[in-house]
Amino acid sequence: MNETIKNYVNVCIKKGNQVLLLNRQHDDFKGWIQPGGKVEFPESFFEAAVREVKEETGLTVRHLQLKGISGFTNPTGKERYVYYDFLCEDFEGEILTTSPEGTPKWWAIGQLDQLDMQDDIRDRLLLYWRRGSFERIHYWDEENHCISHTEEILYD
């Protein structure tokens, strides 16, 4: 069975009790999101994470931790969108004042519920700093054009 796989990275940059998010106001991912984007062949997933953070925030990240895998699976279309989810608590540099992907800003973790962001991103952010790793996959219902269900597995 041939399938199409598209690879992406998400990076949760955490500083104490704050996370760095981008105010994205274009395409289907409007609202506050963590830095990330498409993995450009043949770069590694770690290289993609470092590049995306630098492009979108101006920061240079170090000591990335692969915390989980998330994404979307379309069984009918034989498509898989895989997101490699990294946590970064070690970085250097100053954040950009503007970015094409959205203005970066530090937010207190306690404020996440008040931010305009997709529920999936809000729920997934909490998984980054928990002990262990995670897998969170949404299954697409091609016929009804919606997510049919989500499977989440926490590994401790």
From TrEMBL:
Cleaved signal peptide residues: none
Cofactor: Mg(2+)
UniProt keywords, alphabetically: Hydrolase
GO molecular function, one term: hydrolase activity
Gene3D superfamilies documented for this protein: Nucleoside Triphosphate Pyrophosphohydrolase
NAD found in the keyword field: no
One Pfam family named in its UniProt record: NUDIX
InterPro entries listed in its UniProt record: NUDIX_hydrolase-like_dom_sf, NUDIX_hydrolase_CS, NUDIX_hydrolase_dom
Domain Nudix hydrolase positions: 1-131
UniProt keyword Protease present: no
PANTHER family: 8-OXO-DGTP DIPHOSPHATASE-RELATED, GDP-MANNOSE MANNOSYL HYDROLASE
Descriptive protein name: DNA mismatch repair protein MutT
